[in-house]
Design a protein that fits this description.
The chain has 218 residues and is of the alpha/beta class. Helices cover 46% and strands 11% of the residues. The chain has helices at 8-21, 42-52, 77-87, 104-117, 134-144, 159-166, 169-188, 199-210, and strands spanning 32-36, 59-62, 95-98, 124-128, 149-153. Strand 1, helix 2 (42-52) and strand 2 form a beta-alpha-beta unit. Helix 5 packs parallel to helix 7 (169-188) and helix 7 crosses helix 8. The longest helix is centred in the C-terminal third of the chain and has 20 residues, at 169-188. The mean pLDDT is 95.
Length: 218
């Protein structure tokens, strides 16, 4: 576990990336809630909260494992998310798990297939993710599942509180930098629709890369 103190000389650039990835969607009722697997159990917690608020009648938790999650969630991201949601009061019958996906595109295409197999064709989905995954999740969904309306949601934590919840500021910065790179790289590879990257966001990204936050770059 690392430090949770965000250095002042990095704060403006990290905040710039943090704000960029927040899609700013207002929550509204959707047909399905999709909890995107990751190392952050807060995704499952927020999904359960949204379910209890009546934002969707059914949840799909999706995710196998990644190098960043295998130690924390040895039985797979979706399985651990499901268990946490049930612990928080979501009924077991309101949850479906998809345990094969290893990236965001597979999260969405596999979930669509799981739902189709169950006779469900949602018109709208709420994607619940880590805060800095919102934009990439949105862009990916618009590419691979264009027929659904998409609302993005994450735990409404300020940057410093989120870092404290993860317990490692360097991990959060590296993930932010990696997701920023993927906005452009994945669009170029055809995995997602293009998203505008403002000049100030691009500049902040390059300064953080130069500062050594490169462990999540592709």
């Amino acid at each position: 576990m690392g430090t949770t103190e965000l250095a002042q000389d990095l704060r403006a650039d990290v905040q710039q990336l943090w704000d960029y990835h927040d899609m700013g969607h207002a929550p509204r009722r959707c047909d399905i809630g999709i909890g995107l697997g990751s190392h952050d159990l807060g995704v499952a917690i927020h999904t359960a909260e949204l379910y209890r608020q009546g934002m969707f009648p059914h949840i799909v938790f999706t995710g196998a494992n990644a190098p960043t999650t295998i130690e924390r969630f040895p039985r797979g991201e979706a399985v651990h998310y499901c268990e946490e949601a049930i612990r928080l009061g979501v009924p077991d019958e309101a949850i479906t798990i998809e345990t094969e996906a290893t990236n965001t595109s597979e999260n969405l295409t596999n979930t669509r297939q799981v739902l189709a197999d169950a006779g469900k064709q949602p018109a709208s989905v709420m994607l619940i993710s880590r805060p800095y995954q919102q934009r990439r999740a949105y862009a990916t969904c618009r590419k691979v599942w264009p027929e659904v309306e998409v609302v993005c949601s994450s735990r409404p934590l300020p940057l410093d509180e989120y870092i404290a919840s993860i317990g490692d500021v360097n991990r959060v910065i590296n993930m932010l930098v990696g997701d920023t790179q993927r906005i452009t790289a994945y669009a170029e590879r055809g995995f997602a629709i293009p998203q505008e990257v403002p000049t100030e966001v691009d500049a902040a990204y390059h300064r953080l890369v130069e500062a050594g936050y490169t462990s999540r770059l592709i």
